[in-house]
Amino acid sequence: MAQAQTPSAIAAPRSPYARRKTTRGNFELYSWVFMRASGVVLLVLVFGHLFVNLMVGEGVHAIDFAFVGGKWSSPFWQVWDLLMLWLAMFHGTNGVRTVVNDYAQRDSTRGVLKSLLYLASAIVVILGTLVIFTFNPCPPGAPAELLPSICFPN
Amino acid sequence: MQTHQYDVVIVGAGGAGMRAALEASGEARTAVISKLYPTRSHTGAAQGGMAAALANVEEDNWEWHTFDTVKGGDYLVDQDAAEILAKEAIDSVLDLEKMGLPFNRTPEGRIDQRRFGGHTREHGQAAVRRACYAADRTGHMILQTLYQNCVKQNVEFYNEFYVLDLLTDHDLTTEQIEDGAEVNATGVVAYDLASGEIHVFQAKAIIFATGGAGKIFKTTSNAHTLTGDGMALAYRRGLPLEDMEFFQFHPTGLAGLGILLSEAARGEGGILRNSEGERFMERYAPTIKDLAPRDIVARSMANEVREGRGAGPNKDYVLLDLTHLEPAHIDAKLPDITEFARTYLGIEPYTEPVPVYPTAHYAMGGVPTNIQGEVLRDSHNVVKGLYAAGEVACVSVHGSNRLGTNSLLDINVFGKRAGRSAAAYAKAAGPHRDLPENPTVRVEAQLAEMRDRPDGERVADVRKALQETMDANAQVFRTGDSLNEALATIRELQKRYRNVSVQDKGKLFNTDLLEAIELGFLLDIAEVTVVAAINRKESRGGHYREDYPDRDDSNYMLHTMAYRRPTSASDAADGHVAGYFDHVEDFGDYKVVLGSKPVTQTRYEPMERKY
Amino acid sequence: MTAVLENPATESPKPEVGAVPSFEVTLRIRRYNPESEHGEESTWDEFTVTAHGTDRVLDALHMIKWEQDGSLTFRRSCAHGVCGSDAMRINGRNRLACKTLLKDVNPDKPITVEPIKGLPVVKDLVVDMEPFFASYREIMPFLITSGNEPTRERLQSAEDRERFDDTTKCILCAACTSSCPVFWTDGQYFGPAAIVNAHRFIFDSRDEGATQRLEILNDKEGVWRCRTTFNCTEACPRGIEVTKAIQEVKRAMITRAF
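YS: structure for the whole thing
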């Protein structure tokens, strides 16, 4: 049926009006639980991160390349930051996914938006993970004056 | 035009229609045609309960229930039917429970029961707890449960289809039909509201379950859609209507609005008071007081108002007092009706008495049927393949006054019976009978005439005049003069009706057109009601004649059977043993012939009715 | 008989005995009739009627239909809030026209009346209810039991009966479902009403079909699409705590899964 494009137009009857497909399975359930659980864990991770970076010792003034490099040389902070990255990205991506589901009116719009979203998330997650694990504060062959003090153990 | 073929077609999707559908759809190919979505039916507005002598909370048995029903109906009840009603009540309630109906429970987990008007122990000794209930929304729960089970059974519904004609193989209005000759119902013609298309349903068996006709009155608890369609269609096709003069006025309608406040309010301890604060029912029914049958309470209330003891600025209502009840008790047992008082009148029932006045509630009369639900075409011959159940039918289990909670019972017991008989008949019957040559011609002509009439009377004006005259002249108190005045007005309105026009000329969802058609039904029903009331020169149950205040068993212990016939038909030759009344009201264009049907008496001799 | 009431609480000067106070009210109604000259376009029409103190929006609609414009189309039946025919959007909120007193929706300004949102409009205030009932039918809204039927009633304690009392009140008017922003988007969400009716059976101690119903509502379009905006609870003319019921169904699913 034709749909007039004026603001006062009544939406055209959406026929056939059957539920398009049934997707039984626990995905949405787990996703719902994940959002709540990851939210709680992220609270701890994020505030722990902020506390360590901003409050402990000299606080914000201590942050520099050496500080970050130093932290990532410890497996504890690698895991912490990795968790923070993954949970924040999955939490955020899933949140935006539900927003897209709620507000996109057509399946095609929904498909495009979600593809972009997943692509962007995947890039960020992969790059971030790579950085955390492959980060070397003292790349060989770099000019010594550019390297932090930790590269020169006594 | 579309044609459909079914074994059983049920017209109406209220309690009786859906109960019949549950029986029939498993056995035969069944369709339910309804002018509303099923869950909109007015069964859902019933509040108080459904009577059955389960004896869950105190001693009770079906024989006492039968007696109460017979006495409540002022002995105009067919006692064999009343006995079936009371006996099968128990299984009907249990059926509903098994279908999932959430009844209120006793501490032991059984179905709880409460007191209701006219239901007594040991033939009138004291009020008994017989009404099975779910708060004050028993009807809602019944309607929902029946619909849920129809969903479960995959019953086919045609929603928002108006049945506008009944097809039979003989024209009962004009043909002379021999006693014992076979007349068959062959189908119905329906109008699809959404598209304006006409559909013909050919069926081996048809069940009418179209409900009542409360909209002939102005103050009524009935829905806007209760316009007596089924009764009027049967009547126009030459079938009789039985006991139409008996209309029940429910004592406690919200004053001025007519919205129903259940008798359960009094069953739970509510008291009626006049302007002086007096519990006036003590004077009218010393034993069971506020729980007397509805006709008696309604009349007592109207009498209080008439004698100047009404409350309010116009002294035109009495008060229903719940203030002595615990608010928690009210919330648990009567949540909906107290909300009605708050929403519509701004009255807080915890602390203030609620203004109430009788409201037109239930047609005891209707299309005559036997105990199998088969429709009668005179005092004893049936129309093959035609059944009726619920308020549209007159079995007659309610006689001249229905007891509260017996209507939810009626739809379940006789809905089930009609459904079973119809399915059995359809299975045994041969192929579909031929439809008349042009089955839709009458309906199409009627619709076209109404739609094409350029400018005329407004439907609303005619309807308002009808409802006002019925309220003024044919309500709780009637006299020969008032009834004749009502009849004169109705005759005049019938003439005006021929000139009504509608503004909406479209095909899609044309409710304007359907309201006009419904007005025609209302006029016919009001007319036959008043003619039958004029003829009955006695007072019995819901029919009270001030000029004849006593019951007259020697002359009127008979059911009225009203037939509509062309003026040309010879009066005596109606074939239906015109019988005792033999009264003819000739209107020039057609006439109403009043015959009679004997009342079936088994156990109980008529006695004076005292409570 | 007139509807004049003694109400000691009102401060306003008592009108003369027998006189019914009346006021003028304007309704701004969204019209749509594909057969009219506007075609698929919907338009706003304004009507002014004289109303009385206890009149409801439905009474005003009737006055318009019966006295001014017979083509105005809406559904109604019982007229006191138990049949669920006349859910509509009145001043932007979903309500039953027969349960909304004119004096309670600020009759000084025009009252806007629109069809409920999210369902295809058929004509004026009438929408196609079929999708709504289709969702209802999908959740198996009937008692499911196994084994032999008892001869008498099934026993159920008063507490067990009370557990699902709230959701038995539903009249299927669609006020909740059509107030839900998630439903508005594409109408695929089962909607609050279907979940409420599933709740009615899931928490009925006599029922044995909870697993199947939970499975159905575990769908992508099931309970997990609820964003707890509470529009449904606010819209329900029967006062059902709809959002709470939905959360209870969610909780039942989580307890089942873990």
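YS: worth flagging: The two ends of chain A are 80 Å apart (CA to CA).
IM: good catch. Also Residues 1-17 of chain A have pLDDT under 50 and may be disordered.
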